[in-house]
Design brief:
Belongs to the ATPase epsilon chain family. This is ATP synthase epsilon chain. This protein is an alpha+beta fold. The protein folds into two domains: 4-86, F0F1 ATP synthase delta/epsilon subunit, N-terminal (ATP Synthase, domain 1, Sandwich), CATH 2.60.15; 90-137, ATP synthase delta/epsilon subunit, C-terminal domain (Single alpha-helices involved in coiled-coils or other helix-helix interfaces). It is built from two helices and eight strands; from the N terminus they run ββββββββαα. Strands 1, 2, 3, 4, 5, 6, 7 and 8 form an eight-stranded mixed β-sheet that branches. A hairpin with a 4-residue loop joins strand 1 (4-9) and strand 2. It is elongated. 26% of the residues are buried. The mean pLDDT is 85.
């Protein structure tokens, strides 16, 4: 079976390096599915979940808060602003961040940075989605 090497790094550290048979990343225009032999591509990413399917079928989920992905036929490099393993996300904290961002957006005062609040809301929602995805994939 053909495999593709995957590296996921953030500004702080390397979070994942290994072989995979499939990778899905949250591209700026939608989710990208990547198989070995993919056409070279460089694109930005939005906050969301990176799904890495290993040769044995096990899946690794990583939350990323945006960045870039470089795809080569035998290599995927994810350069994330922030990258966290989905199982290390704090659901209560993400839910509180979502509520706080929604409250700031609902506030009609002129003292709010709407762009920043929208980014914070998108990141919190993406974290909660990552938590839900890993819950659905984990056998009970």
């Amino acid at each position: 079976m053909a495999l593709i090497h995957v590296n996921v790094v953030s500004t702080e550290t390397s979070i994942y390096s290994g072989e995979a048979r499939f990778v899905a990343v949250p591209g700026a225009a939608g989710e990208l599915g990547i198989l070995p032999g993919h056409t070279p591509l460089l694109t930005s990413m939005r906050p969301g979940t990176v799904r890495i399917e290993a040769e044995d079928g096990t899946e690794t989920f990583l939350y990323i808060a945006g960045g870039f992905v470089e795809i080569q036929p035998h290599l995927v490099t994810v350069l994330a602003d922030t990258a966290i393993r989905a199982e290390n996300l704090d659901e209560a904290r993400a839910a509180a961040a979502r509520e706080a961002a929604m409250e700031r957006l609902a506030n009609q005062s002129g003292n709010i940075d709407y762009a920043k609040a929208q980014v914070e809301l998108a990141e919190a929602v993406a974290q909660l989605q990552a938590i839900n995805r890993i819950r659905r994939q984990t056998p009970r």
